[in-house]
# Entry
Amino acid sequence: MRRVVIGTAAVSMALSMAACGKAGDKKNDSGSSSSGGTKASIGLLLPDNTQTRYEQFDRPLFEAKVKDLCSGCTVQYANANADAAKQAQQVSSMITKGVKVIVISAQDSAAIKSSIQTAVNKGIKVVAYDRLAQGPVSAYISFDNVKVGELQGQALLTSLGSKATKSSKVVMINGDDADPNAAQFKKGAHQALDGKVDIAYEQSGLWKDTVAAQKMSAAITQLGAKNIAGVYSANDSMAGGIANTLKGAGISGIPLTGQDAELAAIQRILVGSQSSTVYKAYKPEAEGAATLAVDLAQGKSISSLATTTLTSGSGDKVPSQLLTPVSVTKANIKDTVVKDGLYTVQQICTSAYAKACKSAGLE
# Structure
């Protein structure tokens, strides 16, 4: 698997979204200001539509922040629809359109390397968004992804309670190997779980609910429904497919992790078909990426934003900004995703979840 090597210890960033305050309260103080006289085109390339976050949150938040920082700037947008070759074509299109900066969440971090090199050769700055792409990128913004995995693993152990023993069989469904973050999530989860439970079945779910469901079905066949103590799912989309498979097999009441704090996942947590997720606030990440992009387009220093350095899979040293993730269970839904305005109580507590919401104090 491709791994991202942390070159400098990740520090807790000022933009971190702790549960004690709104994720977007802290501004990106980089010296950027609204510059009506500056005209620059910025490309935003996101990897897929499978995960609801990109179209629902990342794109509009990014576009709004660019407009706020630079009234003369425009955003050119494209989504790869989980197709690495398509994303490479989109980079070429951005180059043709004359963008000054490309912000990209790579569908395949290694495959996109040559496209990034071509863009840089044309004088275009590249910001790696959420996933650390290979090649000469100017900056990277994401979350502490090893910490994400650790939070997932610890949440699983906490949910297991006294059942967290070395003989307890756990199924582990990881993300797509083409995504460098997947290796970091996996690393963090293993750090939390190894030696404490028996990871009896481990496969990649490719970030797809259908694939994860198939892998879960195979795990049940291999291990036996009664022998599975819990399931580690690397994200919420896959957790949805896994939850359906567990229900179909008559398995209930066992821990199931996730990531991204998707609305459906929050609702599953309320009714007990998922035990936890990890909330990575989209607002500070998207706005941080927009600030980096505008500063680079305007030729400003980004040293006050990108205060740590990571080494990508291609060996490039990349100035980086890492944000802090938060574990979400039924106990802190109100103090995290609701408090931050990610979802309203009305959005979460539809008629099917009204009773569970009342029980959780969401009214």
About this structure: The chain is about 40% helix and 20% strand. The first strand starts at residue 5 and ends at 6.
